[in-house]
Amino acid sequence: GERDPSVWSVVIGALGLLDRIVPDADRPALQQAVRTLVGPVAEQVGWDPRDDDGERTPSLRASVLRTLGTIGADQAVRDEAARRFGAAAGPPATGTGLHPDTESAILEIVATTGGSAEFEAYLERYRKPANPQEENRYLYALAAFDQPELAQRTYELALSEVRTQNAPFVLQLLVANRLTGPASWERITADWDALVDRFPANILPRMLDGIRTLCRTPEQAEAVAAFVTSHPLPAGGKTVEQILERLDVNVAFGQRVGPGLAKLLADSVGT
Fold first, then answer.
1. Distance between CA 96 and CA 146 in Å, rounded?
2. Which helix (H) or strand (E) holds 111?
3. What is the pTM of this model?
4. What angle, 0 to 180 degrees and rounded to 10, lies between the N-to-C axes of helices 5-21 and 237-257?
5. Are the C-beta atoms of residues 254 and 20 closer than 8 Å to each other?
6. Distance between CA atoms of 234 and 247, rounded to whole angstroms?
7. What is the Cα–Cα distance from 34 to 27, expressed in whole angstroms?
8. For each successive 10 residues of the chain (271 residues), what is the average pLDDT?
């Protein structure tokens, strides 16, 4: 019965880390655990605003729906997100638009299973938004697509068309993508000098925030840390240190918990 978004933020953050370190064979167990934990509160708050919503209910609604549709792979949630996106799709002059409270969640859910058609629709809406907020939502949602070729297109967009104050955040999200993150990181390392010259120095550390999720193996994390350490940024040294510390913590957690995660979830959640 917990309805405090702050509590659920901690739970969902933990589930996000489990999503990074779970062995592929045990992923169905994690998905079931997410549906078991998060499904009841999502059913309570529903998809649409209600008269009895508290001040923070919209935040809770977006968080639990996003988690169910992405980490939880809940098919009913994915289908409803696709239906709502389909009904709202199209340029601002013709599309009805999505409710701003759940728009980002719906876009991320749709991108998780979407392909080229959805990508083109997002790109069109980014280029012809109804307002600046919608422009940012569609831009950042482009980084959620799982296909390698679409991730590459988003990367190229960030280096060409996207404003320099927004592009580092797009790259951060690309690196944080569970499936395409490692390849996006390789692109960033190859273009490192050009990126450092192109983007504002005070925002560059935010570009690196996604690397804390590159924790699947110690070897991967060590290579990431070695590159970042040997290529210091002009600003934000303390922030970068904290990101690398979090990467180390995540790797250690994965090594300790990952192999027995399915049993742990079965015992604690009842999957």
1. 27
2. helix 103-113
3. 0.92
4. 70
5. yes
6. 21
7. 11
8. 88 96 94 95 93 90 97 97 87 64 95 96 94 94 97 97 96 97 97 95 93 95 97 91 97 95 89 66
**What is the end-to-end Cα distance of the chain in Å, rounded?**
19
- How far CA 11 is from CA of 7, 38, 82, 99, in Å, comes to 7, 9, 26, 25
- Which residues have CB under 8 Å from 29's CB, separation 6+? 22, 261, 262, 265, 266, 271
- Amino acid (1-letter code) at residue 199: F
Question: What letter would DSSP give residue 71?
Answer: T
Q: How far is CA 61 from CA 97, 99, 112, 156, 180, in A?
A: 18, 12, 18, 33, 27
CA atoms within 13 A on the CB side of 184: 37
Contact between residue 112 and residue 70 where contact means Cβ atoms under 8 Å apart: yes
Question: What length does the chain have?
Answer: 271
